[in-house]
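**Fold tokens**
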Amino acid sequence: MEATTIRYTDFIKTKAKELGFLACGISKATFLEEEAPRLEKWLNDGRHGKMHYMENHFDKRLDPRLLVDDAKSVISLLLNYYPSEMQTENAPKLSKYAYGTDYHFVIKDKLKTLLEAIQEEIGEVNGRAFVDSAPVLDKAWAAKSGLGWIGKHSNLLAKQTGSFFFIAELIIDLPLVYDAPTTDHCGSCTACIDACPTEAIVGPYVVDGSKCISYLTIELKDNIPTEFKGKTDDWMFGCDVCQDVCPWNRFSKPHNEPLFNPHPDLLEMTYKDWEELTQETFSKVFKKSAVKRTKYVGLKRNIEFLK
């Protein structure tokens, strides 16, 4: 191993920490052999519901070299979003990741800064930043680079930190020191499978996306099927049940990213406030939020469905 490769790797990991990332792992940019048949089966079984975009760019999802010319390394990064305060008990629930500013903006800025720092320190390095907005299997890459293992709920889990974090990547054309995957620590636990309100976790490590409350309240643009009436557990945007019940999340610590702090009004809003939500309040409370993805009409639809 060349001394410069080790030095570059150390620099990248140190810089990632400085930028507030929870963890940074690196893996070799190659074809994801194990994931290919799994992804194909998941799509063939229709587990993606109406997320038709999942069928696109199949090859690119499995090979980062098709996304970045001469890609050598996939740098996976985790950013904590676990909040220090939660919504009031008597209210429709919002997934914790959506409390503050839309993570796409926050992470993209950090990744841009990291890539610029790499280029400044090392020279001409080409690469692209990804925050779940392109065909990249982020959980697979994070697991490959030793940042955790894929839990039975199909989320990435880490022993020290749980799962309340975002995953992002920098794919670059620079060879680095690669990390080794960790082992699975779910054991015989089935807490997430047992607790899922819609039985979307159809088996260990297999989620039927078309039954997932996050899919129903965010991705699905049609009316929510009546078969889920009374089963969405008061979630109006996303769902955290499988993470909330996971024993590893007892190690979750509040984030220290000011941009992820919620709008002051958000946590105090009651059931009545949400039912009477106006376009004006929606625009104010969710000005730069990921909740804008459902738009006002989508959130109103979700709240109505809970009645």
In short: The mean pLDDT is 95. Strands lie at 23-28, 73-80, 93-94, 127-130, 149-150, 156-157, 165-172, 201-203, 206-207, 235-237. The radius of gyration is 20 Å.
